[in-house]
Amino acid sequence: QVQLVESGGGLVQPGGSLRLSCVAFGSRFSIYSMGWYRQTPGKQRELVARMAIGGGTYYSDSVKGRFTISRDNAKNAVYLQMNSLKPEDTGVYYCNAQIPRTPDNYWGQGTQVTVSS
User: Fold this and answer.
1) Quick check: helix, strand or coil at residue 88?
2) What gap in Å lies between CA 83 and CA 104, rounded to an integer?
3) Which residues pair with 77 in a beta bridge?
4) Beta-carbon neighbour count of residue 109 at 10 Å?
5) Cα 103 versus chain centre, distance
6) Strand 67-72 relative to strand 57-59: parallel, antiparallel, unpaired?
7) Rounded to an integer, what distance in angstroms lies between the CA atom of residue 36 and that of residue 22?
């Protein structure tokens, strides 16, 4: 089992940057595919970025070119660097860890990101 703790959210002006961090507590962090999801009121949680076990990445079209996901297996951590932030990036960001094709699927508690002037 894995516990995920996010940090780094906050209030930022449009065009600004934030870096989200997610630290995993548990064993075998390196076997988990890690992702970041975003949820806004009234909408379903959506995948923003994901990094596979082998290092391959996926980004939603809305953040491609602005956000970068990275991981440090030695620190049991995954990061989301968010640049050129827009008001529509506002939401609660959740860290996710999963082992593909298994029931192992874990979520952090979420961190609020607000982009506003």
Assistant:
1) helix
2) 31
3) 23, 72
4) 11
5) 20
6) unpaired
7) 9
Burial pattern 71-89, b for ≥16 Cβ within 10 A else e, equals beeeebbbbbebeebeeeb
SS3 89: helix
Pairing label, strands 91-98, 10-12: unpaired
Residue closest to 82 by CA, chosen among 104, 63, 105: 63
Cα–Cα distance for residue pair 37/108, rounded to 1 Å: 10
Tell me the pLDDT band of 110, cut-offs 50, 70 and 90. very high
Q: pLDDT tens digits for 59-90?
A: 999 999 999 999 999 999 999 999 999 999 99
How many other C-beta atoms lie within 10 A of the C-beta of residue 94? 21
Torsion of CA 66, 67, 68, 71, to 10 degrees: 170
- Phi and psi at residue 27, to the nearest 5°: -100, 160
Q: Tokens in use for 64?
A: 């491609």
